[in-house]
UniProtKB/TrEMBL annotation:
Species this protein is from: Roseateles toxinivorans
Protein role: Catalyzes the tRNA-independent activation of glutamate in presence of ATP and the subsequent transfer of glutamate onto a tRNA(Asp). Glutamate is transferred on the 2-amino-5-(4,5-dihydroxy-2-cyclopenten-1-yl) moiety of the queuosine in the wobble position of the QUC anticodon.
Gene Ontology BP, a term: tRNA modification
Name of the protein: Glutamyl-Q tRNA(Asp) synthetase
Transmembrane regions: none
EC annotation from Swiss-Prot or TrEMBL: 6.1.1.-
Length: 309
């Protein structure tokens, strides 16, 4: 069982990957999650999602924490690191093994593509391949390299799963998880746990009630809701924020050259983030950081909490 913690009406979190400093896009998510927690007098946590250790940059976590502090976005507890929680993930994966929810898989990407093609299903370029369930009932002599979770209604049925959920900004959402994603990986061939596994276990262990994050992560939500249900965890409330786009029209990210924030004066960066979030409020040109954050919190509360989530 996940340890129980004192329940608060609201516990939110910001969960950056320490692959480099915060940029304009990641500040939008950080500010939105902080404002949402403060508007409802909740707790706000920071979690370093460094489970994919080969992608992480040494010292980036400290830079991120310093940048947050420069912006006045201070967490209510010290940050948690996924890389230090492997024992927890091992226990939780063992639980799923004992219940029959997970199985070993020996399929390569090439094999998955061939299986989909044989079914007349060709994935679009640059999209994730939906897993067709090839190893669900046995690896058939292939070496097992990864661990997948079943996207079925139960361990004794192959009935597909459709996930319906409501986003506080995007509204009603639905995905045929079995067809569009298929059985997804919880532990990779290299022995590392995946984002989907770690984030669901961590959100439950930290008793997260509200998740505010970038819209690019919305397509992960059905997988996480399915895994929450498999574990018997509560499902948090979700709000996916608008994205900051780069010059190429794609999401601004470290991969497409997003510049680290210049925060000697954090207010210009915060104002730009607030504009992306659609917040409208006036502050004097000589406002202090604290006064600006109070005004932003009031604007967020007016925009999102006239009806309590």
């Amino acid at each position: 069982m996940i340890p129980t913690k004192p329940q608060h009406r609201y516990i939110g979190r910001f969960a950056p990957s320490p692959t480099g400093p915060l940029h304009a896009g990641s500040l939008v998510a950080a500010l939105a999650s902080w404002l949402d927690a403060r508007a409802l007098k909740g707790r706000w946590l920071v979690r370093m999602e460094d489970v994919d250790s080969p992608r992480c940059v040494e010292g980036a976590d400290l830079i991120i924490m310093r940048q947050l502090a420069q912006c006045g976005l201070l967490p209510d507890e010290p940050p948690v690191y996924q890389s230090r929680r492997s024992a927890l993930y091992v226990r939780k994966l063992g639980q799923l093994h004992s219940q029959g929810w997970v199985y070993p898989c020996g399929c390569s990407r090439k094999a998955i593509a061939a299986a989909l093609e044989a079914q007349g299903r060709v994935a679009a370029r640059h999209t994730e391949l939906a897993y067709p369930g090839t190893c669900r009932h046995g690896v058939h002599g292939k070496p097992a390299t990864a661990t997948r979770v079943r996207t079925t209604v139960s361990v004794s049925s192959d009935e597909p799963v459709t996930i319906q959920w409501n986003d506080r900004r995007l509204g009603a959402q639905q995905q045929d998880l079995t067809l569009d994603v298929g059985d997804f990986v919880l532990k990779r061939a290299d022995g590392l746990f995946t984002y989907q596994m770690a984030v669901v276990v961590d959100d439950a262990e930290q008793a997260i009630t509200h998740i505010v994050r970038g819209e690019d992560l919305a397509d992960n939500t059905p997988r996480q809701i399915h895994l929450q249900r498999v574990f018997g965890f509560a499902t948090p409330k979700y709000l996916h924020t608008p994205l900051v786009l780069g010059e190429n029209g794609e999401k601004l990210s470290k991969q497409n050259g997003a510049a680290a924030l210049e925060l000697d004066d954090p207010l210009p960066a915060l104002r730009a983030a607030a504009q992306t979030l659609g917040l409208q409020f006036d502050t004097p040109a000589d406002t202090t950081l604290g006064d600006w954050l109070r005004s932003a919190t009031q604007a967020w509360a007016k925009q999102w909490h006239d009806h309590r989530p």
